[in-house]
Amino acid sequence: MRDLMPEFDADEIGAEMLQFMEELFPICRSITGDGVRETLRRIGERIPLEIHEVPTGTQVFDWTIPKEWNIRDAYIEDPQGRRVLDFRESNLHVVGYSVPVDKRMPLSELREHIHTLPDQPNLIPYRTSYYSETWGFCMQHEKLQELEDGEYVVRIDSSLEQGSLTYGECYLPGETDAEVLISCHCCHPSIANDNLSGIALATRLAEYLGGLSVHHSYRFLFIPGTIGSIAWLALNEDKVQRIQHGLVVACVGDPGQPTYKRSRKGDALIDRAAALVLGHSGQAHRIVDFSPYGYDERQYCSPGFDLAVGSLTRTPYGEYPEYHTSADDLGFVHPESLVDSLRLYLQVLDVLENDAAYINLSPRGEPQLGKRGLYPAVGAQGVGSELMARLWVLNLSDGRHSLLDIAERAGLGFPDVKEAARVLLDSGLLRPASITDASP
Ligand code: ZN
User: Fold this and answer.
1) 3-state SS string over 73-94?
2) Residue 23 and residue 39: Cα distance in Å, rounded?
């Protein structure tokens, strides 16, 4: 039995995760470039991280690694020479992957390159144009409306050149080669919940698991969305089959309720573990079916791989008004939500680590629990969950039912069933099942 549930100081961990997000927030990230490298460097200060560079032009399945994008500065000056938009105030002001521009143009022409959110006029949208070469700015709609006609100076000091795509990988070997994949995207600029929260959670999780002895090996990927996971899959086809379970981490810091998106399989162990944990979490939550949209689960669950990878988030992508805007900032995430999410992840991993089948060594009639001190006094409220968990584990431990099967059938939380198994093992009433026990 392994115990993944730490005795941690929730306030301290939450504050520390938020602090890491604050450190990463100002960095201008994209799917390639120095912003990703700097982000990975900082993650690497906390966990053992291997940095990979995949050269521009590399073919990865149906995709090609794009040119590397870097940006130094960008602004718009009005006819009076005042900066009405400045990249240094917010990196969201420039459309990601904008080609360099140094021009004068009338407002009417400039407008065609400006993106706003008329329904959220005080917010800056987050826009990118990775796969078609263009340029653009993003600004508050209310600011755009204040601009007067005339000639504007437009400058984007960026470069789009041969280079590479950078991703980070942290591999924590366990007792077996069977792997758990934890994947998060690291390609958004100053956006907090989507997905600095995921980076902070994955980093904390790796830090924590690195100090434990665990059954599975854990592979953490910090990758640019879509192209990063496709590149990893293409370059690591020999390792893919080791992945037994996986979770895509994103949007884990907002105050919304937890949401689990099932893998394409729908009933994989990871899907059942997540459903069990959320069902016994005591909080409102949602479980939604797989769909081929969203984050990198789209790639891990593509039919050529069909990995058992789900996604555990809070409010899903696109379902909160702050999504992909300047309002998804550090004020939108809460340390309590970050810690709650971390706890849920650890509880799910605790199921994966401890799900095993056992054999009842006294299967003819119930063993007499009372003489072993294992039959708690039955109170006025009836039989408690402690006794029920022991009775269920004894009854179903025939080598064909794992602890997760038992928890599901008994309607009990995994920690109760696990604790019952621990007690019964200690008292000599159970032994771990072997492969031969499972055959009929
Ligand atoms: Zn996003």
Assistant:
1) EEEEECCCCCEEEECCCCHHHE
2) 9
380 band by pLDDT with thresholds 50, 70 and 90: low
198 alpha carbon – ligand 1 mean position (Å): 11
- Do 122 and 55 reside in the same domain of the chain? no
d(CA 240, CA 36): 24
- Helix axis angle, 414-426 relative to 403-410, nearest 10°? 120
Give yes or no: residues 234 and 204 share one domain. yes
- At residue 99's C-alpha, the angle toward residues 95 and 103, to 5°, is 100
Residue 23, helix vs strand vs coil: helix
317 C-alpha to ligand 1 centroid (Å): 7
205 contacts 269 by C-beta, under 8 angstroms = no
pTM of the prediction? 0.96
- Span from the CA of 90 to the centroid of ligand 1 (angstroms): 17
For the stretch 86-124, pLDDT in tens is 999 999 999 999 999 999 999 999 999 999 999 999 999
CA of 310 to the centre of ligand 1 (A): 17
User: What residues contact 156, with CB distance under 8 A and at least 6 apart?
Assistant: 71, 74, 94, 98, 99, 100, 101, 102, 135
pLDDT given at position 438: 61
Number of domains making up the chain:
3
Per-residue pLDDT reduced to its tens digit, 263-298: 999 999 999 999 999 999 999 999 999 999 999 999
Q: In CATH, what number is assigned to the domain containing residue 382? A: 1.10.10.10
Ligand 1 centroid from CA 305, angstroms: 23
177 and 79 in a common domain:
no
Tokens of 351: 């199921």
> Is 324's pLDDT higher than 90?
yes
